[in-house]
Structure formats: structure tokens, C-alpha cells
Amino acid sequence: MTAEYRIEYTIQRTVGDPENYEFEDIGFGSSASWADLDQAAHILASAVQTGGWETEPGMPDPDEVLADIARAREEDPR
After folding, report:
1. pLDDT tens digits for range 13-63
2. What are the distances in angstroms from CA 7 to CA 20, 53, 63?
3. pTM for this structure?
4. Which segments within the chain are labelled E, that is strand?
5. Distance in angstroms (rounded) separating the CA atoms of residues 20 and 27
6. Which of 1, 53, 69, 76 fits 27 for a cystine, CB–CB 3.0-4.6 Å?
7. What residue ranges do the domains of the chain occupy?
8. Residue range 40-54, pLDDT digits in tens
9. Rounded CA gap, 29 and 8, in Å?
10. Cβ distance 47 to 29 under 8 Å?
């Protein structure tokens, strides 16, 4: 019998001022089921990089989050 693997995740971002911030959940998901961890990790990375995570009411749209990240990178391209 061959095992299958998946990675479940929560995405969080900071809220509040830089000196006193907290993390809030902005999304979640699963890599689905794969034959090995490398495949599961690849699917997880792809979902996170392309905004393919799930949200609940009140969470920001993944496209807005990715746009915010892109704008921040333009301002401070480390």
C-alpha cells in the first residue's frame, strides 16, 4: 500500500503598527493528495504564488493580496 501526502496551510499577515502588530488569517488551503511530499510541496508553492488559496467572508481577495505584495516589492525591491 502506497501512502499519500498533503500539506494543509494557513496564510497570515501582520496588522497594526510596526512596533506592536499581530497576525491575522487571510487564507488557507491544502495541497490535495499526492504520492510524495515533493509533489505536495510543489502544489502548495504554486497555490500560494498564484493566489490559489481559499478564503472565508471578511478575508481579503487573494488577487488584492498579491497586488499589495507586488507594490511593496516595487517600493523596496530587496
Report:
1. 999 998 899 999 999 999 888 899 999 999 999 999 999 999 999 999 999
2. 31, 12, 22
3. 0.82
4. 8-17, 20-30
5. 22
6. 53
7. 8-75
8. 999 999 999 999 999
9. 6
10. yes
